[in-house]
Every structure is written in structure tokens, then in C-alpha cells.
Task: structure prediction
Amino acid sequence: MKKFFDEFKTFITRGNVLDMSVGVIVGGAFTAIVTALTDNILRPLINWIISLFLGDSAATVYTVLKGVYDGEGNLLLDFSIYIDWGAFIGAIVNFLLIAVILFLIVKAINRVAQAGETVRAGMNAERRQKIAAYRGQGLSRKEAQARAEEDIRKAEEARAAEEKQRAEEAARAAEEKATANTRLLEEIRDLLKDR
Result:
């Protein structure tokens, strides 16, 4: 029994199971939003448009299979059997909206994953080239790997230092510009006071 619970714990704490759970919850909430949109906004609009073209009665918006009418001849929808064309068209719109949104989400995720793979492939190619160069110099495989990793680490540190220096220079330039603007405003103020 302990083994079963250990396996279950391993299964439930995996990253992809948690991601899938979050996806299902968010998907359910999103589906509820789209369903509310189609049921409460689009379906009445679709029924209204149908009634504009086919006439202004419930019988034109619905295809009545078995109708129950009140004493004045009005159709009682709660007791009748009918086809609601607006609900059908709304369900199609609901499906299309969810499909388009999911397509856009999957496309964005794939683009991000592809960019990550491209970066990793570039880094791996650079690493392999460095290892091959060190192996050509007569170093062992472990030594070549260690030197390549050291070179890559130094290059990353140099890039980070360069970016930091650029950011500092940009901040300094912005500060100098602000100071120059302040001086100019003070000079204008002094000139206006003298008049």
C-alpha cells in the first residue's frame, strides 16, 4: 500500500500533471465565459435577426414540433417542443470562438518553444565547436568540456557586464539630459524675472 501511495505522490506532483490541471481549470472558466457570451448576447441577437427577416413572432424564430398555446394563441415555450435555431447557431459560434482562441494560444506556445529550441541549438553548436577545437589541441574530452564551459561562462559574464554598462550609460545620459533641461528652464525663468 505504501508503494501505491508513493507512486501516486510521484505522479500527482509531476510538473505536467499540475500544468494540465491548471489548463483544465482555466479552460473550464474560459468555456463558461464564451458560453455566457453566446447564450446571453449572441443568441438573442441571432433570434432578433431571424425575426426581422421571417416575421415578428416566436413561431418564425423557432421551428415548433408540438406547440402548446395559451388562450390568446401565444406559444408557451416552456411547455412546447421546438427547435431553437438561435441556440444552434450560437453553439456553432461558441465552438468557433473557443477553437480560434485555443489555436492562438497553441500557436504562441509553439512559437516560444521553438525560439527556446533555437537558442539551445545555437548554444549547443557553439559548445560543440569549442570542444572540438580543444580536442584538436590534444586535450582530453573532460578537459575540453571544462574549458568550453569556462569559455561560455566568461562570454556570458562579458555580455552581462556589457549590457550593465550600456544600461548605466543610458541612465547617465538620461540624467544629463534631465539636468540640462532643468538648467534651461531655470535660465528661462531668470530671463522672465528680469523683464
Notes: DSSP finds five helices and two strands in the chain.
